[in-house]
Design brief:
It contains 15 helices and 17 strands. By secondary structure, the protein is an alpha/beta fold. The protein has two domains: 232 residues, Rossmann fold; 175 residues, DNA-packaging terminase, C-terminal nuclease domain (Nucleotidyltransferase, domain 5, 2-Layer Sandwich), CATH 3.30.420. A ten-stranded mixed sheet has the order 3-4-5-2-6-7-1-10-8-9. It has a seven-stranded mixed sheet with strand order 11-17-14-13-12-15-16. Helix 1 packs parallel to helix 2, helix 2 packs across helix 4 and helix 13 crosses helix 15. The radius of gyration is 29 Å and the shape is elongated.
Amino acid sequence: MKKPMKAQPKSQPKKAKPQRVIAPQPGPQTQFLASSADVVLYGGQRGGGKTFAELLEPLRHIGNSHFNGLIMRRVTPSITNQGGLWDTSLQIYPLVGGVPTESRLLWTFPSGAKIKFSHCESENDLIKYQGSQMEFIGFDELCEFTAKIFWTMFACNRSVTGIKPYIRCTCNPDPDSFVYPIVKWWLDENEEYADLSKSGVIRYFVNINDEIYWADTAQELINQFGSEAYPKSFTFIPSSVFDNQILMKANPEYLANLNALPYVERMRFLKGNWKLRYAAGNVFKPEWWQIIDALPVDIKDSVRFWDFAGTVASEKNRDPDWTQGTKQVKLADGRIVITDCQGFRESPLQVENNLKNIASQDGKSTRVGYWIDPGQAGKAQDAHLRKLLMGYNIVSYPAINDKLTNAKPYAAQVEAGNIVLLRGDWNEAFIREHTNFEPNMKSGHDDRVDSASGGFKMITQSIGFGIMMVDLS
């Protein structure tokens, strides 16, 4: 008797490989990619997914063998920096057959379509684009470019491939950029924040002798300037980090990073303020300062930082700058207390005597720092001061950054309450000078700010006790 045959297991169908979908997120990204305007400006805040959206835009044309797209940044490092345009394109373009040529910052697609990344650092660089023809031009961070670069590149935005030429731009708010007057119609009545009811609304413009004329319809401009006016359509689509749910889910700490920015930058990049600029009262606000009556005992580090700017008053200059030295201590909980600020206008010899006397009063546990000129004269001054203060722990920094750059991280920590003042008769003048501080000050003084900024830099860097030589070459 035959044994019954065992039933053969049915073959299981092969599971299809999951497909990756390249698509915009709902909201401003989708609106940006759906706009029919000739020129679209997208963003206005950090973290809104601007780079991803701009990289997606030209992919709609990669089936056209004659397509040439160009995406621009002001300087090449902004393209090639880690996490920048090129890195992000490496995550997207290979999925649709793109082949990179990194040495040329060029992507080539199976049809022969091309997307190139390039820079235009100055208006002199425009010559390399003469005669070029690109159906699509993208400006990443438009506010970094000049008006001449932007409007001149319109001449390269042309096509004989059947693709209507168009331009897409991203930006962050900058009240001093040529972009600000362009977007004003899309802002609120105070011309500060985006009016979301106007997001994506298309208007029309003509540029005549570098003067921009606007209208709600193209016909209005044709009626005003004639049939050869050729109006272009434009819109602004704002976005923020809260529109980028992928980022918020993957990196929720990024919101904390934006909140930790100095006040003006936080209002621009997180809140989308187009009008606020660094000015007196915006770098340091008087209400930020906290004053304590007694110094805690848990001190972990102590520094005195000098800004050598003082000269003796004279008939020609009755109100010269001051030499200011700010003492700061770091507590075990990470807070910084500014305990003292001493300033004087004296002869070089008296300045040196004051430095030695104050260093002696502070004690050798207090490290001494100062700004010096980055040139040869600074090296000589540094050597002289080290000899003068022999036996003390000394750090010198070349003064290579502008005053605002030095002050920004310090100001952010003052606002956060991580830097406080010890009550003293010097508090009022100290706070007043900080409140009046602004870039490119033409009057008043900023010596206390320079001294305190340097002290913050010094006390927050991981420097062990001992002499640190800073390379000035």
